[in-house]
Batch of 2 targets.
Target 1
Amino acid sequence: MADVATVVLTGIGLFFFLAGTAGLMRFPDTFSRLHALTKADNLGLGFIALGVAFQAATWREVALLALIWALALLAAGTVSQLVARAALGEEETR
Amino acid sequence: MTLWLSFVAAGVLASLAGALWRVWRGPRRADRMMGAQLVGTGGVAVLMLLAPLGSWAALDVALVLALLAALAAVGFVKATSPDGAGDPEEEEETPRRKADG
């Protein structure tokens, strides 16, 4: 049962990762790319962490996975704000 | 199960390749920084996936990599605007060094 959950959840995580990367490559404007990037970061990583948590033997790994995902959430949120502000000042070059 | 986890890890590495393409092509510095940040997050994801295959110590490495990816972006922001605040309202008084496109 745990293996099925892992397969399904990591599959969803991979889907979001690829969707985020496709968005990062395809979107026309810097800020829309930033939008796609944070999706890949938060959702893709979150589902992969959830999927791998089912494989964890002890509770330490599950706690560590949750910690990594929480850090990634915070980091992605603040970093995209900072990068967007840094990019705001530069001249609009395609 | 190991086959599936390795397959998903390979998929995430493919998304890393997309991020590197963005780093190479990105017209502006912010795009390149975004690509670098996705490489960091992709690395964390791969480490997480390989943890059950190899040793669970990879999770600690993933934690450190997630932290370093965030600090790299902070370094980038500090480089573009001297005081690093990057606050558009406050930019008027201090004319910022024109960052190259």
Target 2
Amino acid sequence: MIKFEILRRRSASDPPYTATVSYDRDADTTVAEALTYINAEILTDDPVAWEHSCRQKKCGACAMLINGVPKLACDAWLRDYPEGVIRLAPLRKFPPVRDLMVDRSVMFENLKMLGAWLTENADGDTEGTAYDASRCLQCGCCLEVCPNFYAGGKFSGAAALAPASRLISEAQGADRKRLYGAYNERFYRGCGKSLSCRNICPAGIDTERLLVSSNAAAVWKRLFRRGKKK
Amino acid sequence: MKVINIIGAGLAGLSAALTLAEKGIHSRLISVLPSERAQSVLAEGGINAALDTMGEDDTRELHFEETMRGGVMLADPAAVKALTDGAPGIVERLAALGVPFNRNPDGSLMLRSFGGQKKKRTAFAQSSTGKMIMTSLIDAVRRYEADGLVERLSHHTMIRLLIKDGVCAGVRVRDDYGGRLYDYAGTVIIACGGLNGFFPGITTGTDANSGMAASVLFAQGVKFANLEMIQYHPTTIGIPGKRCLVSEAARGEGGRLFSLKDGVRSYFMEERYPTLGNLMPRDVVSREMYSELRGGAETFLDMTGISDGTWENKLSDLREEIIHYLSLDPAKEPIPVEPGIHYFMGGIYVNTRHETCLPGLYAAGECACIYHGANRLGGNSLLGAVFGGMTAAQSVSGYRDRPRLTDGAFNGADELDCAPSEAFSASLGYMLREGLGIVRNDSGIRAALENVQMLGYGNAAERAKKALAEAMLYSALGRMESRGAHYREDFPETFEGFRSVTAAEYRDDAVRITFEDIGQGGVDNDKV
């Protein structure tokens, strides 16, 4: 028997409350599956709102706090919580919508402000950075644990580091200069290098490696080149 | 100002938005979830194009022929020709957008073998090709979002089309955060994905796909085609809540299927099909696996012969995924696999310009029936989605319609502002699965149809979904032959007389099925 304690709220303006549900089925499954069962069979008239899509940790939809840790519900197995209590709560860095749903649009707005796109043809990346960085799910788990990120701030966190790193690794010409500047302003200057994002990524992206390679390209080599010119 | 409403922000929707934006045309990208959550990110193996970089003398003509043959001659040849001719340009464009495709030592795009194709023709980025293409296209479209040419309406659900004077004049959507309804005027491109929502829990797709967008269109009179053509992918594994795809790339890179019975291994595909072996088209492989399974054997995929270098450079994600879900290392031991529902060749009936039967309404991507005939070749779905989205956008850009509605909040009640219950969808899915398996027959389809017809509905969404489910079964019942993914054990032969499109319509509260000549879908909007 597993006890689910689910932090719910009817809307952003309603106060949160905890709903407790007993789940007595097979533990060899995921939190996502258990939630599906709970909604279909137990809370039929008032199902828990949560975002979900791929069910195989490739889309980032079902990110939530599970016993306080940001995780994908489809990648959290009941057997890994032997104490028998699983607490589900919405991510806290984003505005609440209802129940476990939050509004993560700030991540996409930040990428727009960063100018995360190319205007010229990509210059083929040969070091695998583009591939690794392109795996980012935009789930927001990294922002949840980041001591420097808050919604509305200029610092855009590792959820912007990954797309920026992909683009920096492939940019040429005017794109390169533009992206270097934006990276400095919206990432490098705000990152306290706590690296709390390092082991939290559900896609297993090595944020430290991206940080090192993008800092090298956008900050250090650039400064060095500038110095040499003088 | 002309604004095009695109329903769905997956690959086809993004492709349409990008093409429109490049022409300076505004669009709204309306989707239940952001693009990162779309099913397109799950595509693994690659995208086909006769780039001929592997020294095998591949040609666009051969791509055309194999796509037609793979679809058992049911696709519109004019559409397929445009698709296969356009493929090399599309893949080169994607590379220019920064998709990190695997490359040959000389820098050219590396191609791999895929099912139903005699030449290496599938460009790929390891085994996460869909995700890589999506990332690049999302960034490309973002540029135009910043310019105001593309407006994103994520967390919005399509409620219905707004039809005026027999023309699609706009769309009604619900903001899922606040629950309010809005009417948006303008031409509509549907890019809502396949019909996974009709088979909850047993497909390789996403569960964000409810099948409701397609159901509403059908209930509103939009013509569908070839609904009986459902692709079972040969190699899937069961994971909590769904079937998980094991990419065809596993076989393209050397994986071998075998069955095991009484301790004896049989490499049945290689024994029965000496030329293409494990890389026969998916309908054939799935049917052979079904026959092994029905004979009491278990079926496995043996990837132990794949080299370390190939695992590392071409299939690293796949290996990780299998270890994660099965606790088996596919490089060291065979894994158990079974066929699972993967793709819907049928859907909204469109013509080569991606026009539907309703003026002002276009469709692209998996929701549209056009390129894949009775069976889709691996590597042609990403291609069809990008090409379809582009083509629909190009057609839309030439469509001149006068404004018939104005944008604004809709304050009334809409009977379609509801959803099917989980119990309803689960029951319907179970009934469909019984009638529309890999091997079908008259009595099985009829039994499923009776069950569906007896299933009560509690709201307008359930009624619409039930109607489209009936159409799927009636289509399967009417096609009294075997062709591609539709195998009838009571009619095991393919008949030339059935080389026609199964058209399904909902008129006067009833499903009507007719067989039409290939290539007759859609109306020419320029002549309306």
